[in-house]
Write a structure and sequence with these properties.
The complex is a heterodimer of chains A (348) and B (302). Chain A has 348 residues and is α/β, with parallel strands linked by helices. The longest helix of chain A is centred in the first third of the chain and has 16 residues. In chain A, helix 9 runs parallel beside helix 10. The two termini of chain A are 13 Å apart. Chain A has ten helices and twelve strands. Chain B has 302 residues and is α/β, with parallel strands linked by helices. Chain B is built from eight helices and 13 strands. In chain B, the strands form two sheets. In chain B, strands 6-13-12-7-8-9-10 form a seven-stranded mixed β-sheet. In chain B, strands 2-1-3-4-5-11 form a six-stranded mixed β-sheet, with helices on both faces. In chain B, strand 9, helix 8 and strand 10 form a beta-alpha-beta unit. In chain B, helix 7 runs parallel beside helix 8. The radius of gyration of chain B is 18 Å and the shape is globular. The chains are: A alpha/beta (348), B alpha/beta (302).
């Protein structure tokens, strides 16, 4: 794992080393070939025993009691927990006022002793505080930001503005109360967070689907909750997906709305340049009577990507469901889709 | 300079098309008869009698072709959409506006048709009509004030609306182009070539059936896109059939908007009669209006 991190540091240094070229006299500057592959992201240090993880609520509220199972489990992995001020705070649906949530997240961003920030849960609210955040602390003391759903706002914002890796995964509210009664896939999903944090490769359960489009793609892995990605369009948290592998998931949306969101991806230039598309779980809201959409999720996606050649993997284990494995957001991956297998590898 | 389609004259032809969701043909009968009684010829597009078995009033190709022929035919002076629903996102980039640019005509509708208004305004600088559609003529609507306002607007009469005062109103006066429509669609258009620039304009918003948290999120999207900070004025229409999550959001739509525009000083009015709830007066999208928000009264005058 140290070797991998060493390699990442070298890559970061390598990217930095090209900067002085910008200082060269202008008349001598020759337009070089366009960079096809995105610059590798900055990767925070992987965690070791004794490292501290902060827990905060940038979106919906949660009680201290509700995060107890997560605390116990994470401590059993050998990490320490710092509980943020917003845990137990409540402003209607939010985990504290905008000012309180922003302050809690900010002090964790700025804390040099934290190695990761785990968002307690999603819900709604990250977009209300994201523009108040000063990311320089994250740049000075790189750390993993962890979450999904509404936390897609933070993952996209960090990728766009810092190009720093993060973790898209389950949060505190998904840790089972009774580990012994949890389903294996639930346990595997939770343990994949530990694997991501410690730099171990994650084995994703195979998701062979007859509608998959075969092929191989390589690029930084970005994406998240589809609706959240749409609501970031045009803002300074909006992600560029050219040359990357995009993953999307969603819950509680009508089929027509999912179709409209895929058109938003298309019309904002997020599909054309992809290296690959990963479609996770979609909990679909049933059509209203008389408003039957007449197309499945698979139809919607395949219709949108018909003109493109990148691989597409359906039913990938990511989303608002038990099998929601950790994804190393913003890191380089290879997606391989064949008729017999689907693999997503991050150690390439 | 805005292009303003010519006002309708007696004997002119109005095309009825359905570019988005399916509409049962009988739902358009009252509208067709009423338009004829006003002295217009009506061209009923193929998508008004669609054999579609699904959500849309025909395939993308069929809906595009029907709208395209109405845009291209110089004899047609206005295009009234049957209904909204969903569907324009799928075809808007394929519409050819060459003939429309030479012979601008009124494009009429609201809800999903917001996409056409925005696209036409941004790319072709042409005014259009945010107004009731064919379905609104039913159940006595044809004799009502809202359909009458559509007729007045089509015929080139200048409109002046007033609405009740609201405790959150912010007083002031502004004369500027009026743009806007359905909030969900304006948010959905962010980052696309159909998006409206709102600086120095009066923005109007309405929506239906959304969760309160999602209304908040969409307003944040507009704000983060710089679409709320330099307005001349803000007109908030009806936000009908709002939904809430199990954990209550804790604010009404009006409170959400009051807070999000708190830092600005342009005039704001609430509960303006533009909505999915029946109260829906015709507004000339892209044309200059004077918004006057006073303590005692609110007016929006062309």
């Amino acid at each position: 794992m140290k070797r991998k991190h060493f390699l990442s540091s070298l890559l970061t240094l390598g990217a930095g080393a090209t900067l002085p070229v910008l200082g060269a006299p202008r008349r001598q500057t020759v337009q070089g070939p366009k960079v096809v592959k995105p610059v590798p992201s900055r990767v925070p240090d992987y965690l070791s025993t004794g490292d501290t993880i902060g827990i905060t609520c940038p979106a919906g509220f949660i009680t201290l009691m509700e995060i107890e199972p997560a605390i116990q489990q994470i401590e059993s992995w050998g990490f320490k927990i710092k509980i943020g001020d917003t845990v137990g705070k409540k402003d209607f649906s939010f985990g504290g006022t905008d000012a309180e949530r922003a302050a809690d997240l900010q002090q964790m961003i700025d804390d040099p002793n934290l190695k990761a920030i785990l968002c307690a849960r999603g819900g709604y609210g990250a977009v209300r505080i994201v523009d108040r955040l000063d990311l320089s602390g994250l740049s000075n003391y790189p750390k993993w930001v962890i979450g999904f759903s509404d936390i897609t706002v933070l993952l996209c914002h960090i990728h766009r503005n810092l190009n720093m890796a993060a973790i898209h995964s389950k949060m505190c509210n998904s840790f089972p109360d009774d580990w012994s009664k949890a389903e294996p896939v639930q346990i595997d999903s939770i343990l994949s967070i530990r694997q991501a944090l410690t730099g171990q490769p994650i084995q994703y359960p195979t998701c062979i689907h007859e509608k998959n489009k075969t092929g191989v793609g390589e690029g930084l892995l970005v994406g998240g909750n589809l609706k959240t990605i749409e609501t970031l369009s045009g803002t300074r948290s909006d992600i560029d997906t050219v040359g990357k592998i995009l993953f999307v998931e969603d819950t509680g949306e009508y089929l027509y709305s999912i179709d409209r969101m895929f058109w938003n991806l298309e019309r904002t230039g997020k599909l054309g340049g992809l290296q690959g598309l990963i479609v996770g779980g979609f909990k679909i809201k049933p059509d209203d009577p008389g408003e039957e959409f007449g197309r499945t999720l698979y139809d919607i996606v395949l219709e949108r990507v018909r003109a493109y050649n990148f691989p597409v993997a359906f039913d990938f284990p990511v989303g608002h469901q038990k099998n929601n494995y950790a994804l190393k957001y913003g890191m380089s991956h290879r997606l391989t889709v064949t008729t017999e297998n689907v693999t997503l590898e991050d150690h390439i | 300079m805005m292009h303003i389609p010519p006002a309708l004259q007696p004997g002119d032809t109005i095309a009825l098309v359905c570019p988005a969701g399916y509409m049962a043909p009988e739902r358009a009968q009252t509208c067709i008869e009423t338009l004829r009684s006003w002295g217009y010829a009506v061209q009923v597009g193929k998508t008004m009698n669609s054999h579609s078995a699904n959500y849309f009033s025909g395939s993308d190709e069929e809906r595009l072709a029907d709208l395209q022929q109405a845009l291209d035919n110089p004899a047609i002076k206005a295009i009234l959409c049957g209904r909204g629903g969903y569907g324009l996102s799928r075809i808007v980039d394929k519409i050819d506006f060459t003939a429309f640019e030479k012979n601008p005509k009124w494009v009429i509708g609201f809800s999903d048709i917001t996409i056409l208004h925005a696209h036409i305004y941004t790319n072709y600088k042409t005014a259009s009509l945010h107004a009731p559609m064919a379905g609104a003529f039913n159940e006595g609507g044809a004799e009502g004030a809202h359909v009458a306002s559509l007729r007045a607007a089509m015929e080139g009469r200048k409109t002046r609306y007033s609405c009740a005062v609201h405790p959150f109103n912010r007083t002031g006066q502004a004369t500027a182009p009026l743009v806007g429509g359905n909030l969900s669609l304006l948010a959905h258009l962010c980052g696309t070539t159909s998006e409206i620039k709102t600086k120095g304009r009066i923005l109007f918003l309405e929506d239906v059936g959304e969760y309160l948290y999602n209304v908040d999120r969409m307003l944040y999207q507009l704000k983060r896109n710089g679409r709320l900070d330099k307005l001349a004025g803000l007109v908030i229409g009806g936000f009908t059939e709002m939904k809430d999550t199990t954990r209550p959001f804790g604010q009404t739509v009006q409170e959400i908007i009051r807070d999000i525009v708190q830092q600005y000083d342009y005039p704001v009015c609430y509960e303006f009669p533009v909505s999915h709830g029946g109260d829906n007066y015709a507004l000339k999208h892209g044309m200059e209006y004077t918004l006057s928000v006073e303590v005692e009264r609110v007016t929006l005058e062309e």
